[in-house]
Structures
1.
Amino acid sequence: MAPVAELICVGTELLLGDILNSNAQFLAKELAKLGIAHYYQSVVGDNPDRIQQVVRTACDRASLLIFTGGLGPTPDDLTHATLADCFGVPLVEHPEILADIAQKFAQRGRTMTPNNHKQALLPQGAQVLTNSGGSAPGIIWQPRPNVTILTFPGVPTEVKYMWQEVAIPYLKSQGWAQNTVYSRVLRFWGISESSLADKVGNWFDSINPTVAPYANLGEVKLRISAFADSEASAQQMIAPVEATLRQVGGIDCYGADEDTLAIAVGRLLQKTGSTLSVAESCTGGSLGGMLTAVSGSSAYFWGGIISYDNSVKTGLLGVDPHVLATHGAVSHEVAKQMAAGVRDRLNTTWGLSITGIAGPTGDTDDKPVGLVYIGLAGRDRVESFEHRFGALRGRDWVRHLSCCTALDHLRRRLLKAEM
Amino acid sequence: MAPVAELICVGTELLLGDILNSNAQFLAKELAKLGIAHYYQSVVGDNPDRIQQVVRTACDRASLLIFTGGLGPTPDDLTHATLADCFGVPLVEHPEILADIAQKFAQRGRTMTPNNHKQALLPQGAQVLTNSGGSAPGIIWQPRPNVTILTFPGVPTEVKYMWQEVAIPYLKSQGWAQNTVYSRVLRFWGISESSLADKVGNWFDSINPTVAPYANLGEVKLRISAFADSEASAQQMIAPVEATLRQVGGIDCYGADEDTLAIAVGRLLQKTGSTLSVAESCTGGSLGGMLTAVSGSSAYFWGGIISYDNSVKTGLLGVDPHVLATHGAVSHEVAKQMAAGVRDRLNTTWGLSITGIAGPTGDTDDKPVGLVYIGLAGRDRVESFEHRFGALRGRDWVRHLSCCTALDHLRRRLLKAEM
């Protein structure tokens, strides 16, 4: 029978609000995917008595205790020592962990320090939950019948890796992941949450699969979730709903699940056998950064020019100094010349440019913070688009929206070219 | 005497991992600022029995219970009804709340629905905690001596507004916010958490201020926190500890609080009156993105060339095709030529370059994933540095570490130039 899980996140930094508890969200989502019920989450500081109290409460209402945090090398990292105390067993040193830590330090040209020895001490009887990405291993431990403990470090990337590589196979081997909640997320750009809700709101009452909308950083998502006895049957339940929602969503739906606008654009560039270069002013390289975050992007992305200073716009991109002086760097004309300039200089099919006022300073009477021009040069046509993203949400927001919107213009242009 | 607080976040969406619990971080930070201790946080679903269990546990160990979530109009919003049950009082309808909700709906051209009536039902004896931004009000309630309850909705913007406008004045009026915990975070690059702990570990036993280490994404931080009767006196307690830790930390300490490596580098460039350009291969513009995330960076950052494809390295950066063919794109030689090339073409004091194998593909027998060369060209000298970041933590990690490490090389060089 599947156990009831409980999450226990250890760390005074969580109680002080220094960090966001993203591990809790990740693990909650993963438990839901595996169909393992979980009714409570606790956060507790680096204090052995309080950790013990949380463990006692959790043992009364759950059988699978999942910990994050408190596995580091410093004295305030107490999770394993406290668990050993809780269940009355000593800590045992694992030489293979020490050897592994020493090797990892050597790879990065560093020397292990004495306090790393602590990380090789695990409660007697506990198995090592390997952490190939970091120094601190976790444990898989059944200290008594009906209590299974998994521990992870606090570093989110390590938690994700260890969960996928070790915890999921372990949970499946125990027969604890027999039902599943499987979700698919459809991603939209260029439509507001309320407009999308107007179009597809009749689906929000659906019971299984459920459909729910989310909005974040200019993007809108629809999550379709099905509860079933296997991933395959959940997928079968989701498929027709997804097809309908995609049809209703139309061109605004750019992808699903882990897709990004950069991935969607990359797919279309490869399909059409075309290449891309970018010219960036206010985004300073972030658009190139998004495009190259995609593994394999070298097949269609050749590079770009970051023309933050106007001398780079004229010197390297060939923007006409007279046009720059007349219209200003933030204008339709300069956006077009930047896009055409980078396309010609890098010899790509497409040139995509961004010039704007990211703020909080740099605005003028007629050019407010958030005003951004996007240029798009194809083989035979150069277009430009004006956007007003506003000043209220700050510099990062304007830059992020500029990059996404530029990618979305190219995406729509590539889709049209396809038709 | 100040109470001990406990956070209770209600919502099945938190248990499903649909949303990140940003309310917990916000409230934790606020409690710390007010000097109100808080040792536990709980998350529980929209289930009356389980909410009651959490309330009972919390009453045993805290005297100020702060709830978020479960105040909406739908049947799964149960917080107020469950609290009334818990303390054995009926719900009472507040006509002024109903009138307020009706008015808010009218303002947006909407009509109140019958389910909004539910939001006007509060436990008998509870005061209204006004929510001027949304429909759901919270409560301030002392159901029995030594227990005070504050409730907030789940929407983060509403929580923030209600906290500032109503909760803080209330807590101060009770004399519960007379102390403060003030923290300062020192930031380090180029040293491991355990090595830093070796140097400053004697401080980890300090009681007030406390000193604690954190590590994240290649960076190590030391948080110095002081508990005092005012921010000013906390700052006075922190200042000498900070000075000592900075001295012991030496050149590895690059800044404090909201500083980034890009901000630290920008400060040094401005101080030395020098300018910077970048040439990026595997990071594809992300280094430029980090530099221009800093408002005012146009004073010293002129731009760069994203030479993702080799044709851009030779064509735009002037890398010698023979050197490229002999040593490969990922080499000391190419890194140096990229850095010198971008410095010359953009006419800046410094040129900084990155070329490497971000993975997961693209490696060869002698050049593994994670191998990265950083080039740094100054007025009279061109250096390069080899790093091996490994393949285990993935593409994003290699790219992030490459950018940070490049900035750190420039930072150390600028500090040397200064001396």
2.
Amino acid sequence: MGLEAAHADGARAAPARRSGTRQQIIDAAVALIANRGFSATSVDDIAAAAGVAKGSIFYIFGSKTDMFEQILSEGVRRLTDDLRAAGAGLTGASALAALVTELLRNVHEHPAFAKLMTAEVFRTGRHWQDSIRLVRDESMAVFADVVHEARPDLDAALVGAAVFGATLVTGLEWLAFQPERTFDEVRAAILATTHGLLPG
Amino acid sequence: MGLEAAHADGARAAPARRSGTRQQIIDAAVALIANRGFSATSVDDIAAAAGVAKGSIFYIFGSKTDMFEQILSEGVRRLTDDLRAAGAGLTGASALAALVTELLRNVHEHPAFAKLMTAEVFRTGRHWQDSIRLVRDESMAVFADVVHEARPDLDAALVGAAVFGATLVTGLEWLAFQPERTFDEVRAAILATTHGLLPG
């Protein structure tokens, strides 16, 4: 991935400034790509929106495709970490409610990334598909594990995907089309939908 | 939309051939755009894949953007019609099961369109956003109406979106990552997830 190498370089050179620039580029790229798509967003656009020189993007990320691959992988990995932390020590319906709440919080906090992830994660024929497959699987597995533990009679991988999908799509629907709803209303609607699934 | 006009033209000129060409272009465009995205797909690519002259695409659809707008609107309208037909005369849990089954069948039958719809429907800043908003709302409303009738205590619009999302994402997950599962297994997993939602 070259990410660790990039971090190590940054630490040797100018850690705070480097990490600030990197995050500025990521934020600008996610916002632009979420609305226009990957191909319609040029490195020039990203550099202008981030307020950095175009050369910085190539220096930090390698290429536009490498940059996007790193953004997707890191974002999904952050989501997985957040989900694991939210569900730690819980089982059954309480665990599932904690995961739904945390995924919804993530969509609310990073709406552009959530759109981009939704748009890209089912595409085939993309350069980066294999590299995000692994982190994607880990994220889905957090839901599947909770289902499997409480209801071994169910197909945990598919049911986990269903709860993930219910939360993701309802969160995006909320932000794009029903912004007058509150976080708690949206959360309650998702939990009502999956109410009969797990005991506890 | 210009669609009715295009159909009328076709009927006057060479109905069978025209409608065959139009569908070839749509099928090619959906397949390419679903995997590469809208901007990365050129009219030349679409013409080559459809085996038609580039001029036919402009003659039939006007522009690349108009073409995509028509594809999205028509596809979502077809889905809405299928959902309404599937739920006709049913209420409560039976109606919801019929809608889930029909949406899953649609995803299975038109996987490229399902990917493309998922990728595009939450984007903002696209030219065609307003035009697909209406048909999108109609599609979501089929689910919301069933929820509202059986459970007026719930936020039907959000719960409808949750069931829609659970079905769409599980269907895409199935086709992209777990193709060894059967239709009935996937359907059963979604229905288990929403099992406690509606009586009947």
